[in-house]
Amino acid sequence: MAYDNSVLDKAREIAQDCQGGHLSFCSARCPMHTDAMGYVNLIGENKVTEALLKIREVVFLPGTLGRICAHPCEDKCRRNTEYGQPISIAALKRYAADKADDEKLWNTSKKPATGKKAAVIGCGPAGAQAAIDLAKEGHDVTIYEKLNVVGGMMRVGIPEYRLPRNVIDFEYTYLGKLGIQFKMGVEVGKDISFDELVKNYDVVIVANGAHKGFVPPIKGSESEGITNAADFLRAVSLDNKSVKVGNNVIVVGGGDVAMDCARSALRVGATNVTVVSLEKKDEMPASDHEQHGALEEGITFHCGWGGDEILNADGRVNGVRFKECTSVFDADGRFSPAYGENKLELECDTLIFATGQVVEDATDGTLQRGGGGRYSVDKQTLETAIDKVFAAGDCAGGTIVIEAMALGRKAAISANRFLAGQDLKADRDFKMEFHFESTLDIPLPEDAQDLPRKYTNALDPKERIKSFVECDLGFDGDVAEEEGQRCLKCECKKCMTECIMLNDFTQYPGEMFEKFLKDGDIEPLVAYSCNMCDQCTIVCPEEFKFAELFGAIRREMVKANNGESPMPGHKAIKMHQRLGFSKFFTVVAKGGKK
Amino acid sequence: MSRKVFLPGCALPSYNPMNVEAVIKHLKNIYPDLSVVQKCCGKPTQAVGQAAKFEERFAGLVEDIKSCEAEEAIVACQSCMKTLAKGKGYKTTSLWELLPQIGLPKELVGKAKGSDVVFSVHDSCSVRDYTGIHDGIRWIVNELGYKQVDPEGRAREKARCCGFGGMVVPANPDVALRVMKRRVDDFPTEHIVVYCAACRQSFIKAGGKAWHILDLVFGDVVHANTPPPEDTLSKPLKAWRNRYRSKQLIKSAMR
Questions:
Q1: pTM, rounded to two decimals
Q2: Which domain holds residue B160?
Q3: For residue B1, what pLDDT band results from cuts at 50, 70 and 90?
Q4: Is the domain of B247 the same as that of B193?
Q5: In whole angstroms, what separates CA A463 from the centre of its chain?
Q6: B195: closest CA among B91, B99, B54?
Q7: Same domain, B9 and B117
Q8: Beta strand pairing status for A203-206 and A389-391?
Q9: B176 and B190, same structural domain?
Q10: Same domain for B91 and B19
Q11: CA nearest A571 in B: which residue?
């Protein structure tokens, strides 16, 4: 039926401005939009299996991500922005995985087979995610992996003491259950040509990561005893017993990779490990957690120094001279270090550069590449110059694991559209394919108070540096539950907690009225189930007057129904009102005139 | 003193005509030239969405008030309170705000001092903004000698609906009943006092023990084991008979 413009305008306003569908700060910041608020609260209610299932609705690596995700969600957590004490979201995810994950719970359903074939180069988080999403769409997926182990950079970049290998192997068995084929130890470009893949498959996803480290060309860099983070960590990961370092190790770099190198160096025999970063201590990109772990293990930091010259004797490194770095970025925020006069000389017998990694071409020069060797892609769709080839992960612009996964998913969405002959961009919600700033604007809960963040248990630093055994022991159950209960539940479902009837029809009013506008109508039962009690309006941050709108809709429905309510039950009201105004039951008794 | 007209509304006469009569007698002691109009304000017609019919019906009621030459309408129903405020030429006052000013019949003051009941007070959601009404009800309960308590965080301006509003009961009885039950669960004590007969009906339906404030004023003292008055509003024949009885009692009280 046709509604008056005043009704449609009001509905439009609610559809646009209702915050009910706005993601929480944590979930919006997650490139994969895991429902962190959802699982954190379930853990708070000791519903650990439900929490695990909620995590697994979005990501296949809860135990892995719970250990090593850089968790940008925690930066945006309102407990961080308000009190500087974010919820331990990642550690809670790990807790759910450790306690409740069970392959019997895994959703291995797939759409019917399409007969289309997809090749994925690389078995890291991006390649695996793309492979999963394409397999679920019913395509026949084969992964080509250069190494003999799964996990990509998670396996050969992140040390075992942070991420035990059995966790990766267990979680990757999910791919096999989906029927994904693995060609392990097959290097594209060497064992099989990229052209062959392009010829033999309907789509190709290139996700070979950025595994090539480098040593910056400063004076003395040709000396022996110098390596780069990628090579060092790969060697440590594949066979740590074969890796030899000197007693004095210097690691140059300020990110998590530098921390990984320094802490691994201790574990393969170094006695003195020093990290030297260009950035000042409080500017270092390494996460607080990793810096803290390194400090606990006795690693020394020199912050605000850049390499000047590598010192050597008989062609072997024996020290480094650094120059003071006065600023890392220029006024426009570009990387452009400026140096002062002060110098610092440190002795070492092993020098590791953790100053970035680049992409090794897996396409025999077929795909164009840009900065860092990354493939040139359309940032929205990850399509390359070859229309059946998409690139994802570190080799296409990601920087952390969860971003790589989001890019893997994005590439899979594009590839799936391509296989279906659909336009890659039409009617696509690109915003939801990566992280964004939450638009939620709600007051803090009335009873909110600053409660301290809970930390996981850790192995004694003196003990843990003796081996690659996992350092972080995770949460105890009661602590995890308490930590889950700290969540401020940043969502606007205030009306939904007050109103019973709305819950029968929608998840939030914005959704309800969007549907109303789309359908051009609404069930009379919806409009006539409102108690008109305004409880929703009292709590709505926008103070939307839903009762008034439902009232206006009712009036329109009555108008279109010959002046009568469309609800069968209201026939009784009709009679009731007729009697309520009839002479038989009414009286006007005037006083004071007799 | 301005001339006054008392409007008991619909639900109250249908629930308990004796209470209507008792209120009129008390008011007439103070306002000898009091008029009384028993008629619906049209709120149900309005809630259903029959805008034109509502205007016509409400205009008729305003005419009745004017025919009494009254400058002030005293109402015992919260829907009437809001609906009548739309009319012009008279002032609308809630009976529950008026009673603290004029007092209760002297013989009733402190009558329930010996009662072991603690009443949870239910405020009508339609008058969340009327602090004077909330205060008035609490004053009455206290004046009678009963102990009382508010549902924490769900009283006065934060009161929740009893489930009866918006003509939902005939349209979606299942939703209405769930709202009623939730509201009953809000109360910290078993005994509930309301100032709307429809709210009382809702709570009885939901398994609650509820009394209308006038039951407390004019009825027997309530003790812990006293059962609540029967749910006459859920029995149409009885309810209409009461409404008719109320009309007769008004006429005789006004003679």
A1: 0.83
A2: 108-231
A3: low
A4: no
A5: 33
A6: B99
A7: no
A8: parallel
A9: yes
A10: yes
A11: B170
